[in-house]
Amino acid sequence: MPIADNLIAFTLAATLLTLTPGLDTALILRTATVEGRKQGMRAALGINAGCLLWGAAVAFGLGALIAVSELAYNILKYCGAGYLAWLGINMLLRPRQALAPAGAQGQRVANWFLKGMMGNLLNPKVGIFYVSFLPQFIPQGQPLVAWTFGLVGIHVLLGLLWAMILIAATQPLAGLLRRDKVIQWMDRATGLVFVLFAARLALGRR
User: Fold this and answer.
1) 148: which of 2, 18, 59, 103 fits an S-S bond (Cβ 3.0–4.6 Å)?
2) Whole-angstrom Cα distance, residue 47 to residue 162?
3) DSSP for 154-186?
4) pTM, entire model
């Protein structure tokens, strides 16, 4: 398959993957709606930073270790499930009563980037997906590392574009959705999504 055809096929497949609703979509929508556009974008940047780090791991062989080692896979899987469950339970049991005051912004900025990144890094299925999916679109004889980073870069770009669309879509209703009662409901709803994803990750098979 010609190089251009490989890139087009991968872009189409990655677009479908990006548009499929999941944990990342829930996190971006909740953060942008409740805390504003900048915070939602920081969560999105954290998620995509996790993708870049997984891409690096796959390019240099660490992703293959996760793919073949049951122990390594399970350790990462249960750590990821525990982390998601911890985030979700906190949102369920302690939803915020209102938005944080302006003085707390610095702390919250760092947290949402890290939460987005860690949620991605601690999900071994992202690594397995990259290990099994990316090689199909790397032409024979082409440099593995360069192509892996290039394809991951396309996936990240698509993810950022989709995040910007999601964030923009929340703005017309932002005033309504930032009411105290709605904030509590959204925290609990997002927490439930996190707990369900944690259970799915912990109980699921490769």
Assistant:
1) 59
2) 12
3) HHHHHHHHHHHHHHHHHGGGHHHHTSHHHHHHH
4) 0.72
Phi/psi at 95 (nearest 5 deg)?
Answer: -65, 145
Segment 115-154, tens digit of pLDDT = 889 888 887 777 777 877 787 788 877 888 888 899 999 9
Please calculate the CA angle 111-169-116 and round it to the nearest 5 degrees.
20
Kindly write down the DSSP assignment for every residue of 111-140, as one continuous string.
HHHHHHHHHHHT-HHHHHHHHHHGGGGS-T
Q: What is the total count of domains within the chain?
A: 1
**Whole domain around residue 40: which residue ranges?**
3-203
Task: Please choose, from the candidates 200, 197, 192, the residue with its C-alpha nearest in 3D space to the C-alpha of residue 90.
Answer: 192
Model confidence over 183-198: pLDDT tens digits?
Answer: 778 778 878 887 887 8
Enter the tokens of residue 201. Answer: 């990750």
Secondary structure of residue 108 in the 3-state scheme:
helix
Look up residue 97 and give its DSSP letter.
S
Torsion of CA 58, 64, 69, 71, to 10 degrees: 0
Distance separating alpha carbons of residues 100 and 108, to the nearest angstrom:
9
Longest dimension (CA), the chain: 58
